[in-house]
Amino acid sequence: MGATDHTKDLADLTSELASKLTERRELWNKWAESDKQKCEEMCHAHQSTVRQYQGNIDSTAQEILALQLQTDLNVSSKSHSEGSQSPGIVNENTNSHLENKLNELKETLVEQQDQKKALEVQALHEKERAKESRDIRNQVQESAIATIYHLSKAKEQYDWLGLEYEKSTSGSEHQGDEVRCVFTQIDSSNPELPFSCTLGVNDQTDLFEVQDCQPPNIVPDERLREIATELNAQDPVFALNYFVRSMRRAFQTELDNLAQTQTPIRNHS
């Protein structure tokens, strides 16, 4: 398969992934928007109930004030009726009833205030959930855009580097854990000439190893060991990027050395 075919395959893959990402983004947007609307509706409902409870609280408070005023009036009336026993008994009974009613209203007021506070907390919670849903939707949109951008950049880098990954065909029992990197666009006199190497993991040390370079012996073993050492010291996130850049640079350096000494490149084994 030539470089043109690989480029077309990568372009098709990029287009397919971009399409799937767009589809997933739309699903996420629908979910986030639906969840946001539900949270906002619940928040508005809680706020409406809070206002209703506030009205009840105000009404209860007015009743308490009215009862307190009535109690004060009865006490005042009692002080003016000390000469008559019967009115005094009536006033005492009335005051006792008013005090009981007053205590009941005070308890009701406390309950209503507690319920109002609980509803305010729920309304705040739903408001925060609605904000989280908006944030999730925005993050998904930004992530999808960034991913599509990186896919496009990957295609550009492929076109520029002429880099291809293949399954290892070394024939070793560990070839399933190995990846072969094939570079082109290195030899200006023959841009399609492949330069390759295999990246694997040593079972005993659990460290990366670089081997099986083609053309044979173009990169000295010492240089391969240096690259492997540096590779194992890299952050895993940047390790592959480092490996690709280092190997490409090593191939180019050795190719330049061969050109200066007018040494022909050995055929691939």
From TrEMBL:
<dbReference type="GO" id="GO:0051301">
    <property type="term" value="P:cell division"/>
</dbReference>
<comment type="subunit">
    <text>Component of the NDC80 complex.</text>
</comment>
<comment type="similarity">
    <text>Belongs to the SPC25 family.</text>
</comment>
<keyword id="KW-0131">Cell cycle</keyword>
<dbReference type="GO" id="GO:0031262">
    <property type="term" value="C:Ndc80 complex"/>
</dbReference>
<dbReference type="Pfam" id="PF08234">
    <property type="entry name" value="Spindle_Spc25"/>
</dbReference>
<feature type="domain" description="Chromosome segregation protein Spc25 C-terminal">
    <location>
        <begin position="175"/>
        <end position="252"/>
    </location>
</feature>
<keyword id="KW-0995">Kinetochore</keyword>
<keyword id="KW-0158">Chromosome</keyword>
<protein>
    <recommendedName>
        <fullName>Kinetochore protein SPC25</fullName>
    </recommendedName>
</protein>
<feature type="coiled-coil region">
    <location>
        <begin position="95"/>
        <end position="129"/>
    </location>
</feature>
<keyword id="KW-0137">Centromere</keyword>
<keyword id="KW-0175">Coiled coil</keyword>
<dbReference type="InterPro" id="IPR013255">
    <property type="entry name" value="Spc25_C"/>
</dbReference>
<keyword id="KW-0539">Nucleus</keyword>
<keyword id="KW-0132">Cell division</keyword>
<dbReference type="GO" id="GO:0005634">
    <property type="term" value="C:nucleus"/>
</dbReference>
<comment type="function">
    <text>Acts as a component of the essential kinetochore-associated NDC80 complex, which is required for chromosome segregation and spindle checkpoint activity.</text>
</comment>
<dbReference type="InterPro" id="IPR045143">
    <property type="entry name" value="Spc25"/>
</dbReference>
<dbReference type="GO" id="GO:0007059">
    <property type="term" value="P:chromosome segregation"/>
</dbReference>
<keyword id="KW-0498">Mitosis</keyword>
